[in-house]
Structure formats: structure tokens, C-alpha cells
Amino acid sequence: MSVILAFAVALAGSFAIEAAAAARRVSLRPGDVAIRLGSYALITAFWFVFSWRPWLAGASTLTTIMITMVIDALKRRILGESLVFSDVALLRQVPRHPDLYYTMPLTHPRIAVPLLLAVLGVAAWYAIEPTALPQGLPASVLAIAALPAILLAMWFGARTGIGRAVLAARCPRPDLEADVARYGVLATMFAYLARREAEAATETAPTALPLPAARGDEVVVVVQLESFLDPARLGGEPLPAMARIDREAAQHGRLTVPTHGAYTMRSEHALLTGREGASLGFGGFDPYLSGGGREPTSLARLAKRAGYETVFVHPYHRDFFDRESVMRALGFDRLVMYEDFAEAPRVGPYVSDTAVAARILAEVRGRTRPILIFCATMENHGPWKPGRLPGIDDPLAQYLHHVGNAGRAVETLADGLSAERATLCIYGDHAPSLPSYRPGDGDPRTDYALFRFARPVPEGGRRVDLRIAALGCLLRDAVAPETAMAADPSVAVPRS
């Protein structure tokens, strides 16, 4: 009876916690409620396996739901999206790169002390509450083995044809906020993970795109500027680089990107593959986790087929977003990353955008054949917290300081490439996750510009608003095999 009562309290309490914290009114349809309660029951059974103490398992479930809803509310407030299964994979990055998140290292007293108290509390509860194991050694051993086996069988059952059909009927396509309202955060996470695994087992790779017919450019530079948009839209001073874009860019405008304030990999993948996130199904929440970069439509793969050297520049750690393996799979021959910027100047915690621009131009000057460079900057990466910049503690002021440096880096690149037959594309991966610029505040789009040097600037009609995948497709016209096979001796001679 104690086990049944503890489970009932855990399920009812979890429902109440989630209903109170939910962004939308939770569904009360019997089938939806059953799925939601089923997810709570599975979590309670999971904790029960470790202790065989029903009230400890029930308390652990309530704590799990409470922590989940706090994190979910924080994510929705900052990024405008509920928790999803791919966030669990990103958790490993938090203790390794705490400076990228609004958090502290595990060794910090504000984290370490509560964790220690929680461990001591669980140990004390474990000692006080009697076990619910059946009497006798054979029965106890059977119970200890049976419950985990049942949970594993249910997990693998979701991977069978019948299980996948049931999940597909409930979640035919990604509709995150609606599914969370129907089934709850954790049930939706479990379902989306299983749906993604089912998609991965049956999906076929997209067909490789044909090479452009026209002559391409000898130099193609694409720079993904971290959290970049026109600072005038946030009340900042006009950026000289924006005026230059208006005068000299072959095309520019607002760029529709997949998210607000984070998930750089979604924008990066869309640009490099020319694929909309919706075409990836449940894998669109984290294209790198799902596909690992094995994309025949990749701009880098296309450039390699055309004879280009392909270089990825990113002044941060190779393990972040697993970029080392992903970028190689996408078709980049050489990676210029954190260790290559060991002596580079920093502005705040990250390598400066101007130092990155200088390295890009050095790569261009040192080329021995046509080159494609894709760069992801870091200087303006959040969080914008007190102490980041001397004498500047306001988050918006910090952001505007960094975006000014991004503008200077764009002008440096434009100056350095203006004498080449070159394409320079710059764009913001997402809007900044500032306290004064949350999801729903103003225009969520970023800005982009496309320069085509060594040719006249088109007359009129250069303001074209795009989706980021369309910009990625547009860039394919910048690479072509004729460039790689041209007789121009400058192609084979390094620049001084």
C-alpha cells in the first residue's frame, strides 16, 4: 500500500507542478493525461530501481519535475523554446565550458554546497525509510532484476515497428509547443528522441547538387558573425560597416534564421547545406547531433569537387558542438581553431573579431589555389555578464561594444578582398539573447550582406530579405570548376 500511495502522490504532485509552470494550458483529454502520467510513472520507477524506497523515489520524481520546469521556463524566457531531447546531449558542454552559459562551475560554493546537502539528504533518507523489497533473498533478487528489465523492455519496445507506429500517430511531425501542452515536457522529449531515431533508421541522403555552370570566384569567404544584427535596431549608434554595405554590397537585407539567442548549429547547417530545418524532421533541433555533417549538399563538398581548398576558421575549442568531426564530414580540409589563436588578442573572454579577420586574410594571401573559407566568430558570444569588459557592466552596452568590433572586422575583410575576384558573405547566426531583447521583442531576423568584388555594384533592387537556407543556395554560384582549372598563373602562386 505504501508503494501505491507514494506513486500516486508523485504522479499527482508532478501533474500539479507542470500544470502550474506550463507556458500553455495543459491538455485534459484522457489520452493526453494518460501519456503525461505514464511519463511520471516511468520516472518514479526509474528512481525506485536505485533505492526500493517508495517515498524517496516519489520525492526524487517531484524534484526532477520541478528542476525540469525551472530550466524549461528559463529556456523559454531567454530563447523562446521549450526543452527538447537534443538539449540533454548539450548538457555535457556546461561543466566543460561554463563561461558560455549563465551558470557556474560545479566547484563554485553556490553549486557545490547545495549538491553536497542534497547528497547528504538522500543518504539520510535512504537510511531512515525502510526498503520495499519483498521478503527473502530469492524474491529480493528477482525483484531487483525484474524492474530494470521491464523498464528496458519498454524502452526497446518503443523502437519496434509497433512502438514506432504508435509514436508516429501521436507525433507525426515536430510541433514542440503543442506537444508539450498535450503530453508534458519529459514525455515529449522521450517521444521526439524515439521519433528521431526512427527517422535516422529510414532516411535517405539528399541528392548532391550540380556544380554551377558559370565561372566562380577564386576566393569565397563566408563569415558567420556571432549574434550580429544592425545595432541601430537596438538603439545603438549607426555602424559604419552598415553604411558601407548599403553602398557597396551586391545584395543585402534581413535574414530569417531558425532561432533566437542560441543554437548556432541550426543556422550554420542551413547556410552550409542550403536545407531548411523543416526538411530534417525531428533532426532539425540539432542537425549536427542528428546527421554529423554527412551532407552531400554541403557548400564545402561542392567547393572541393570544383578544386577549391576548403578551410573552417573558428577561434574556439574543437569539441564544442563536436565541430571538429562535423566540419570534416561537411567537407572542410583544414580547420583553424582555438590553438591557432593562442597568441591572438581577446576582447572580453573570447578572441577578437579583428584578429579573426586578420587570420582570414592571411589564409587568402597564402593560398595556392582557389579557396573557400567559412568562419564562425566568437567575440560577441553571450552571456553578457558584469565583469566581462572593464568599466562596462550593462549587457546591452557590452553587446554594442562587441558589435562595433564586428563592424570593423567586416570593413577589414572588405578592404583586404576588394582587389580580388572574390565573394564575401557576412551574416548573423541569431539575434542576441539580451535581457532587453527577448523572443518577441522587435524583429527576430538578423542582417546579412553579399559582396561581389572586382565587378560593378548592381543598380537598385539590392535589398533582398532572405531565409538563411536560401542564402546558402545563393552562395553555390560563387564556386565553379572553371576557376580551379583556369590558366591564370596567379591561381598557382602563393600571394605575398
What CATH calls the topology of the largest domain is Alkaline Phosphatase, subunit A
The spatial strand order of the largest sheet comes to 4-3-7-1-8-9-2-10
CATH class wording of the largest domain = Alpha Beta
Strand content: 5-15%
End-to-end C-alpha gap: 82 Å
Return the string of H and E elements. HHHHHHHHHHEHEHHHEHEEEHEHEEEHH
Q: Which regions contain 5 or more consecutive residues with pLDDT less than 50?
A: 487-496
How many strand segments? 10
Mean pLDDT across every amino acid position: 89
CATH architecture of the largest domain: 3-Layer(aba) Sandwich
What summary fits the major beta sheet? 8 strands, mixed
What would CATH call the homologous superfamily of the largest domain?
A: Alkaline Phosphatase, subunit A
Question: How many structural domains can be distinguished in the coordinates?
Answer: 2
Structural class: alpha/beta
Q: What shape does the CA trace take?
A: elongated
The value of Rg in angstroms is 26 Å
Secondary structure: helix percent: 40-55%
Number of helices, where a helix is a run of at least 4 consecutive DSSP H or I residues: 19
GO cellular component, one term: plasma membrane
Subcellular location: Cell membrane
Pfam families: Sulfatase
InterPro entries: Alkaline_phosphatase_core_sf, OpgB/LTA_synthase_biosynth, Sulfatase_N
Quick overview:
This protein is an alpha/beta fold and 496 residues long. Helix content is 49%, strand content 9%.
